[in-house]
Amino acid sequence: MEVPKEFKNRKPEPTIGITAEELSGSNEVVHLRLNGRKLAKKDLMGKSDPFVVISKAMDDGTYAQVHKSEVIKNNLNPDWKQFTLRVASLTGGKPDSRKIKFQVYDWDSDASSELIGDFETTYTEMLTGLCRQLLFNQTKLEHTLIFLLIFFKL
Q1: Is 149 contained in some domain?
Q2: Could you read off the pLDDT of 18-74 as tens digits, one per residue?
Q3: Burial letters 53-88, b for 16+ CB under 10 A, else e
Q4: Residue 127: what pLDDT?
């Protein structure tokens, strides 16, 4: 196939990939309150400015962000504000198998947030009660006794 003349010398246009998932059925929601304890110090002149990103695994193996918390400045024991999510937005109708990833980052003003740690679970595992997870930073091959406490109210 020959490329038309008007496209031969054009620079590639920026592209955006879009993944869509139909969320039908239940309007069930879950209320989450996240707490971090003994987070690692990531700032040179202080503690850390942590925030949480929650993402769900998609069928193609990628992750889609479903929530981002507020940044709590200069704090190693943050208590993030409670928030509500639709269960379908977390699970895509697969509560037993759809992985949910929790990532805790240290916010930096230059937009180069640094990973403090992360873990994966499923919605069904989360419903078993108080969820405490050790955060592990694989890029730095370090782990610390960091717990992210998740409380559920249905």
Answers
A1: yes
A2: 554 555 556 788 888 888 877 888 877 778 999 999 999 998 999 999 999 999 999
A3: bbbbbeeeeebeeebebebbeeebebebeeeeeebb
A4: 76
Per the domain annotation, does 47 fall within a domain? yes
What's the per-residue H, E or C state across the chain? CCCCHHHHCCCCCCCCCCCCCCCCCCCCEEEEEEEEECCCCCCCCCCCCEEEEEEEECCCCCEEEEEECCCCCCCCCCECCCEEEEHHHHHCCCCCCCEEEEEEEECCCCCCCEEEEEEEEEHHHHCCCCEEEEEEECCCCEEEEEEEEEEEEC
In a domain, 19, yes or no: no
pTM, to two decimals: 0.74
Q: Between 56 and 87, whose confidence is greater?
A: 56
- 39 in any annotated domain: yes
The per-residue pLDDT for 85 is 87
**Tokens for 97?**
């198998």
pLDDT at 150 over 60: no
- Give the total number of structural domains in the chain: 1
